[in-house]
Write a sequence for this structure.
């Protein structure tokens, strides 16, 4: 299948090679005999859907994770990495998916982190400016990450890796936080970087990005390497099949005529000239006016710090606006993005987590038998795979945990559902089940506000999309181009 | 089934921990030149050796530990680190002493109830400031409650040499409260007083509240994951923490009142031989579970009673009991941490 | 002696052990660990100093105190850092352990409680020239040499934190362990070193209590200074120079007893004894508003 690049091994050793790497976290098998070989001077895409093991494999290569079995070779020489410092010493650099900048440090301090000896600020600033110029980044030496855009933070991270003289650059899902135009610019830069003899690993689940720029591709599925080939000899269909096995992935556009939208007179939620502040008391939402009707799916898009988090929480009744009027239905279901921090308590069992909904309004005695029965019913209705309702949620898979959240919130048949990246980090099957649930809820008359950082998902599911840019809202049709442009503030 | 295997491994872990500590303690004693077997015999005898030992030494010591232990367990469960038990205990003792003096003429039941209530109120007031500071300004309650301990100690020192001093003005203590106001003895021939029943009631009440009331459920979630409590549960976590903080302080104040009305019958300095810290050990060894407090309070009280006997009979300084308490806590925490590692790696992989 | 000079002199004398312990805690908290067990290290340092000074003299006593403090710190690091036990609980248990150990050992080795031992104490080291300055001359420049060490240490730490890569690495560990790991730093190693050094300073603080102030060891003689030091760290916003200033503020509140006696105030002495703790409460409230501690403090996670 495809053109294997092992054939070139006689010419020069791989810049980086991982052989038969296995890793288990507790009971979860993250990697099972995975292999990877990076030809020097190439861009190599590491593909796979969420949970396939791509990040784990690269963290092994960067020394962040110690493998249970397998070996690492740099330029044909076997090495052992006990910590990232070892990997860095061998010329490996990694830009993490959720960034690794210290929020309290300035750009110069973040860039300098990891050095030795005395810290000569002027000297380091000069070095930073040199790398920044190469990346096309305008550096503000004393700026803190919170004031930089996602693209600028990412460039600073890349500058950091370059500053450590890395010869192998690993980028973990770099496009995930960038709007389309800036993601394209990054890929351009990577191409020029590779042309200068460096090697790049691009970890992604986006086929398109991979094919656009990579020379080689490796596909992981369930922790195993199922395909590795040069890009030239492979088709998109083959890659898709390798990534997903037998299941189909294409998110087709469903029938999206909202039920009852024409007959509804009273909106489920309405915001009138609403402004809101974030935790640092900076106003991030300005004069937003929005109406949500029953039965419709309203998509929400926006880059980091565009205000989407605040908008969602105001609609979910969790946040009070600073100015303006918010009239929200009392019957709300909220599915936040970071389920471990905001939605469930890992120390409690399924039943207690289900009883958590609206607990703040409850008084009197808890009738646990009733709650147990209710939880059991919900678990059945929402297909939560667990032995019984007293199982601690910590042992459930990510997909099942999200199903518990959905069961709890949707089971109460709320009139308004606010979902924030509900399918993030889930495997394809769980993700499509959750999408179906939200669709069904809308069909039954609930209003669904659905934020997704996956534009394809928004385009497929939403009736209309509210795009946030710099705290202002613009309504768009569910079209990738239109949304992409609105996210950058251009029209 | 995962739930029971977890609990079973917990019991094994705690048993191992206790054994380890016993061995270390024996080792320390031996190295310091004490006869280990004699010490152990004195320890056991002082705690359980006779009916009198059990009721008058162990259970009497257990009474304040039961109340304060479940107060600390409650607070820690909600994420409030109230280490000011000693200070709250002292002001509760002082308040109840004062009420006992002033209300000596009232009918017996009324006077006792008032004195106990005064203790609880005083304790609550002593906890209100740190609770308020924590809620409004995020002041770390460990430090603020510790400071209140030191301030309380100075206040008691002043009271027993001043306004509350006994009539002859010779000793730094209050006058004895009248016989009528002493809590009745519940086991003939011993010193075990009605305060023990009060303590049991407190423990059961806390347990029922935590496990069966909506407020208790909200408190548990607030401690387990405050963000989820606020976001998913729409719980006012600040209010919950504040109320539990003050309630715990009230309980510690009540413990002080019970001690005065049931054991000491007067106020003096050093009324609390470190009950506040022992209560922390009680709570931690009970796994922060109110019913567990029943066992750990009696266990640590037995240790304390035995230690006194050890000092009397063998000469081992009784402060060694603090060393043993600390070792027990550390061993229990270690056992918990080592078990928890397995769970933690599962969580990391899933996220 | 002039009253102002005497007051200043007692302020400096009372501030020194506070400053030493607080500086130690600055290092520890900047690395992301809150050490409630600092009080235990101070007490252990006092005991260790008394033990060593008896046979080897005052200077060796200082080293003995630092070592004892560091030893207690090692236990704390084992539980709080390596085993990832909740730092507040571990710290409380450690202090209890130290309290019990020093008390039991003191009784066993030194006999009945409260007997004043004949311990060699630190003598004053005068700095020629500066000594003759009016008022501050005798207050600041005729003190035991540990005072000058504390001063020098403050300046050294301030420089080290902001001008060396090692200091940067320590600060990164306290703000974001994940970022530190990704940059090739080892958080666990750094926290261990920070705790060992910080608790050595705390032990030194206890040694100063014995060898430059009390001249004896008494059970529980640290009297909460370790906790006050933690409050001073927050007051000084985790910066060495400000922490030194804060220590002086507290030293003054402790020197108040002396003033009250001299000025013949009719105040119950318990109020004077309670003043440092009252001041701490006020400081805690005032410094809490707008305070930004190291972001990762108290947490043992390394994925943020």
């Amino acid at each position: 299948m495809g053109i294997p690049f092992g054939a070139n091994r006689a010419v020069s050793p791989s810049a980086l090679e991982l052989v038969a790497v296995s890793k288990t976290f507790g009971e979860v098998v993250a990697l099972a005999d995975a292999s990877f070989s990076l030809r020097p001077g190439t861009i190599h895409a590491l593909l796979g859907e969420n949970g396939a093991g791509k990040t784990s494999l690269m963290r092994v290569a960067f020394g962040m994770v110690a493998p249970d079995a397998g070996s690492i070779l740099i330029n044909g020489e076997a090495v052992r990495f006990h910590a990232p410092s070892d990997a860095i010493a061998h010329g490996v650099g990694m830009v993490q998916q959720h960034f690794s900048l210290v929020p309290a440090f300035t750009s110069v301090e973040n860039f300098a982190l990891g050095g030795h000896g005395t810290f000569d600020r002027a000297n380091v600033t000069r070095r930073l400016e040199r790398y920044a110029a190469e990346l096309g980044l305008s550096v503000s030496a004393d700026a803190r990450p919170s004031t930089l855009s996602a693209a600028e933070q990412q460039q600073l991270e890349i500058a950091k890796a370059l500053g450590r003289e890395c010869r192998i650059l690993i980028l973990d899902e770099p496009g995930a936080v960038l709007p389309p135009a800036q993601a394209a610019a990054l890929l351009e830069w990577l191409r020029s970087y590779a042309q200068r003899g460096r090697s790049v690993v691009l970890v992604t689940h986006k086929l398109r990005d991979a094919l656009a720029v990579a020379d080689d591709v490796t596909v992981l599925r369930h922790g195993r390497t199922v395909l590795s080939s040069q890009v030239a000899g492979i088709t998109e269909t083959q890659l898709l099949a390798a990534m997903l096995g037998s299941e189909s992935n294409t998110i087709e556009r469903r029938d999206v005529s909202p039920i009852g939208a024409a007959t509804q007179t009273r909106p489920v939620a309405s915001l009138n000239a609403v402004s809101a502040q974030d935790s640092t008391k900076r106003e991030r939402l300005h004069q937003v006016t929005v109406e949500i009707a029953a039965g419709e799916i309203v998509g929400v898009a926006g880059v980091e710090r565009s205000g989407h988090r605040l908008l969602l929480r105001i609609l979910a009744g969790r946040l009070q606006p600073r100015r303006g009027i918010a009239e929200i239905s009392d019957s709300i279901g909220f599915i936040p993005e970071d389920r471990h921090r905001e939605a469930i308590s890992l120390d409690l069992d399924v039943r207690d987590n289900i009883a958590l909904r609206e607990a703040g309004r409850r008084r009197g005695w808890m009738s646990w038998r009733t709650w147990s029965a209710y939880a059991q019913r919900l678990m059945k209705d929402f297909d939560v795979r667990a032995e019984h309702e007293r199982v601690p949620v910590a042992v459930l898979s990510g997909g099942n945990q999200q199903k518990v959240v959905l069961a709890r919130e949707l089971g109460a048949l709320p009139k308004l559902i606010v979902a924030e990246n509900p399918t993030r980090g889930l495997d394809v099957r769980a993700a499509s089940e959750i999408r179906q649930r939200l669709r069904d809820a809308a069909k039954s008359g609930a209003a669904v506000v659905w934020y997704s950082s996956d534009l394809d998902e928004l385009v497929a599911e939403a009736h209309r999309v509210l795009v946030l840019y710099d705290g202002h809202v613009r309504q768009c049709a569910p079209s990738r181009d239109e949304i992409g442009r609105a996210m950058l503030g251009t029209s | 089934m995962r739930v029971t295997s977890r609990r079973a491994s917990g019991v094994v872990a705690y048993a191992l921990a206790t054994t380890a500590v016993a061995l270390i303690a024996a080792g320390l004693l031996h190295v310091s030149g004490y006869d280990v077997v004699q010490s152990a015999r004195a320890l056991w005898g002082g705690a359980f050796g006779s009916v009198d030992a059990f009721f008058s030494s162990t259970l009497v010591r257990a009474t304040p530990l039961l109340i304060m232990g479940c107060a600390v367990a409650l607070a820690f469960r909600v994420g409030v680190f109230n280490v000011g038990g000693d200070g709250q205990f002292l002001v509760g003792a002082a308040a109840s002493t004062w009420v006992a003096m002033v209300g000596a003429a009232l009918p017996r039941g009324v006077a006792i109830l008032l004195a106990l209530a005064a203790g609880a109120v005083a304790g609550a007031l002593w906890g209100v400031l740190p609770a308020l500071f924590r809620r409004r300004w995020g002041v770390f309650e460990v430090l603020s409650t510790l400071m209140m301990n030191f301030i309380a100690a100075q206040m008691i020192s002043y009271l027993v040499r001043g306004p509350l001093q006994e009539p002859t003005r010779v000793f730094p203590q209050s006058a004895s409260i009248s016989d009528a106001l002493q809590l009745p003895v519940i086991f003939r021939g011993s010193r075990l007083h009605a305060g023990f029943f009060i303590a049991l009631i407190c423990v059961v009440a806390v347990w029922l509240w935590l496990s069966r009331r909506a407020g208790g459920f909200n408190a548990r979630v607030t401690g387990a994951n405050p963000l989820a409590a606020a976001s998913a549960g729409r719980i006012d976590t600040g209010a919950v923490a504040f109320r539990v903080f003050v309630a715990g302080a009230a309980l510690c104040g009540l413990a002080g009142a019970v001690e005065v009305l049931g054991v000491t019958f007067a106020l003096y300095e050093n009324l609390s031989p470190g009950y506040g810290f022992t209560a922390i050990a009680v709570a931690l060894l009970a796994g922060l579970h109110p019913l567990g407090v029943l066992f750990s309070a009696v266990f640590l009280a037995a240790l304390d009673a035995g230690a006194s006997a050890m000092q009397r009979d063998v000469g081992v300084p009784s402060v060694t009991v603090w060393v043993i308490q600390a070792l027990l806590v550390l061993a229990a925490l270690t056992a918990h941490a080592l078990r928890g590692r397995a769970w933690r790696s599962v969580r990391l992989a899933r996220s | 002696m002039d009253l102002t000079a005497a007051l200043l002199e007692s302020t400096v004398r009372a501030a020194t052990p506070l400053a030493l312990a607080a500086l130690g805690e600055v290092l520890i908290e900047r690395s992301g660990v809150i050490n409630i067990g600092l009080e235990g290290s101070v007490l252990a340092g006092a005991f260790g100093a008394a033990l060593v000074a008896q046979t080897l003299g005052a200077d060796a006593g200082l080293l003995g105190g630092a070592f004892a403090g560091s030893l207690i710190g090692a236990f704390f690091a084992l539980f709080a850092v390596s085993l990832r036990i909740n730092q507040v609980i571990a710290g409380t248990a450690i202090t209890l352990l130290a309290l019990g150990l020093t008390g039991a050992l003191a009784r066993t080795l030194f006999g009945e409680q409260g007997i004043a031992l004949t311990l060699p104490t630190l003598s004053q080291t005068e700095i020629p020239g500066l000594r003759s300055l009016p008022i501050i001359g005798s207050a600041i420049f005729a003190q035991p040499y540990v005072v000058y060490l504390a001063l020098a240490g403050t300046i050294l730490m301030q420089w080290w934190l902001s001008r060396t890569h090692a200091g940067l690495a320590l600060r990164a560990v306290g703000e974001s362990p994940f970022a530190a790991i990704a940059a090739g730093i080892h958080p666990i190693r750094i926290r261990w070193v920070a705790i060992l050094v910080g608790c050595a300073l705390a032990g030194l603080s206890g040694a100063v209590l014995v060898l430059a102030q009390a001249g004896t060891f008494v059970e529980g003689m640290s009297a909460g200074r370790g906790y006050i030091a933690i409050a001073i760290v927050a007051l000084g916003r985790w910066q060495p120079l400000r922490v030194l200033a804060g220590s002086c503020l507290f030293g003054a509140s402790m020197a108040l007893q002396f003033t009250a006696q001299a000025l013949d105030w009719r105040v119950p002495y318990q109020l004077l004894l309670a003043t440092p703790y009252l001041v701490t409460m006020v400081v805690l409230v005032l410094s809490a508003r707008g305070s930004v501690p190291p972001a990762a403090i108290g947490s043992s996670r390394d994925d943020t």
Q: What stands out?
A: DSSP finds 16 helices and 19 strands in chain A. The interface with chain C takes residues 64, 83-85, 88-89, 94, 96, 100-105, 109-110, 112-119, 160, 164 of chain A (CB under 8 Å). Residues 41 and 305 of chain A are 36 Å apart (CA to CA).
